[in-house]
Amino acid sequence: MNSYFPEFIRLYYTSCLVMLGTCMLGIFSACVGTFVLLRRQSLLCDALSHAALPGIACIFLLTYSKNPAVLVAGGAISGTISILLIKGITARTPLATDTILGIMLAVFFGCGLVIMTEIQKKPISEQAMLNKFIFGNASTLLPADIALIALIGFLVISCIILCWKEFQLITFDAPFARTLGYPVYLFDIVFTLLLILTISIGLQTVGVILMSSMLIAPAAAARQWTQQFKQLIILAGAIGACASMSGTFLSSYLHHVPTGPMIVIVLSSIVFFSLLFSSRYKPT
Amino acid sequence: MLMSEFAVSINNLTVAYNNKPVLWNINAHIPSGILLAVAGPNGAGKTTLIKSILELVKPVAGTIQIFGSPYAHQRNQIAYVPQRMSVDWQFPITVFDAVMMGRYGNIGWFKRPGDADIIAVHTALQHVGLTPYAQCHISELSGGQQQRIFLARALVQEASIYLLDEPFIGVDSVTENTTVLLLKKLRDQGKTIIVVHHDLQTIRKYFDWVLLLNVERIAYGTVEQVFTPETVTAAFGTAMQL
C-alpha cells in the first residue's frame, strides 16, 4: 500500500499537469486563432509553425539544451525570420502571397528535417526528445513547460484584452483604422509576434505540422454558432480547451498515439459537427 | 483667399501605380461648405484622389493640405466613407459596434467608449434610419442599409470634411434619398462634402461643385459653370447624356 499511494498520486499529479497545460494551450491558441481566421491568415499560421522546426533544431545543435524556453526561443527566432522573408519577398516580387507562403513553409520545414536528421546521427542522448516537436507529445510536459505556456499565454491574452478595440477595428477595416491615425503596420507586427509566441508554446504539445489546426479549428467551429465577436472568442476558447483535454486524454488512453494528431482529430470532429448542425449556412 | 481658408488644397498632385500615372498634376482648392462631386470614367483616378487626401496612397509629386496644414495634423477633421464592398460583411459585429468604430479616433488608445460615445452612436443611427437595427449583425442588413452604417460611422466622427467613395452604388432609393438629404444638411452646417460619383444624371440635382477627372483635371468649379456637355465629353472621351 505504501508504494501504491505515492505512485497513484504521482500519476494523478502528472495527468492533471498535462491536462492543465493542454487546456491552457487550447484556450490561448483559440483566442489568437480567432483573429487569424478573421484576418484570413490561416496559411500564414501554417507557414509560421512549420518555420519553427529549423530554429528548434539549430538552437539544440548550438546549446544541446533541453530547456523548453531555449527551444521555444529558437522556434520563435526562425518563425520571425520566416515572416521577414515572407514580407520582404511579397513587397519585392509580383508573386502572390499564398505562393510565397507555400514555398516558405516547405523550405523551412525541409531545412528543419535535414538538421534533425543530422542531429540524430550524433551520439547525444537528448536528441530523441526533439522528435516530439514534429507531432507533439503532451505526456512529456514538465512543470517548467506548463509555467512557460502559462506565462506566454497570459502575456498574449493580456495584449489582446488591452488592445481589444484596436485589434477589432484593424481586423474589420484596416484602411479606415489608418484614417483614424492608428499605426496599422505596428499592430500587424505586434499581432504577428503574438502569433509566433503562441505557435512556439504549442509546438511541444501539438507539433509543428498540426499547430495551425490548433489555432484555426476552434475559431472555425465557433464561427458557425455565433455572430458576436466576444462570444466567438469565448466559444473558440472553450472548444479549444475541451478538444485539447479530450485529445490528450485519448492520446494517453490509446498508448503511443501522438497528442497532436489526436487533438486535431477531436477538433476536426467539432468543426464538422458545427458545419452540419449549426443553422448558419442552412437555406432559410 | 488664404490656404487655411480652403478645406482641402490639392497642389500639383501626381500619383502612380507601378510607374503608370493614375493622377497627373491635379490642382484643386476646395472651399468649405460645398457639396463636391468627383466624376470621371473608370480608371480616371477618382478613388485614388480620395485615398491621396487620406494619405492611404503616397503621391509621386505634389502636396495636399487640409485647412492649410498637413493631413497628419488635421486627421480628426476628416471622416471617410469607403466603398461598401471594401470590408467583410460576415465579420462578427453588430451595427452598433460598427458605427462605434467611428468614435475610436476620439476615444484614444486602450480606452473603452463612454456615455457620450454611446449617445453619439444612437443619434447617428437615428439620422440614417437604422435605430431598429442597432443590435443586428451587419450581414443581416441590405446593401443600402450597410452603406448607411458607413455613413453613420462617419457622422459620429463629427468631422468638418466628409469623403465618400461611390456611396450610391447598388443602394436602394431610400438610402440614396436619406444620404443626399443628410449630405445637404451637413453642407448647410458648413461642412465640406467630397463624393466620388458615377451617375452623371444626378450631378446637377445633388451637387454644387464638380471636379471632372480623367487622370488629369478636365474641369473644376461650380456645376452651373463647368458641368457642360463639352467638359463631360472631354472627360469621358464620348458624348454623354446629362
Count every helix of chain B, treating DSSP H or I runs of 4 or more residues as helices.
9
The domain tally of chain B reads: 1
- End-to-end separation of chain A: 64 Å
Q: What's the structural domain tally of chain A?
A: 1
CATH class call of chain A: Mainly Alpha
What's the CATH class label of chain B?
A: Alpha Beta
CATH superfamily of chain A: ABC transporter involved in vitamin B12 uptake, BtuC
Q: Which residues of chain B form runs of ≥5 with pLDDT under 50?
A: none
CATH-derived topology of chain B: Rossmann fold
H-E string of chain A:
HHHHHHHHHHHH
Unreliable residue stretches of chain A: none
The CATH architecture classification of chain B is 3-Layer(aba) Sandwich
Number of helices of chain A: 12
Mean pLDDT of chain A: 88
- For the biggest β-sheet of chain B, the strand order reads 5-6-7-3-8-9
- List the secondary-structure elements of chain B in sequence, H or E: EEEHEEHHHHEHEHEEHH
- Per DSSP E runs of 2 or more residues, the count of β-strands of chain A stands at 0
Radius of gyration of chain A: 19 Å
Question: Structural class, from helix and strand content of chain B?
Answer: alpha/beta
CATH topology of chain A: ABC transporter involved in vitamin B12 uptake, BtuC
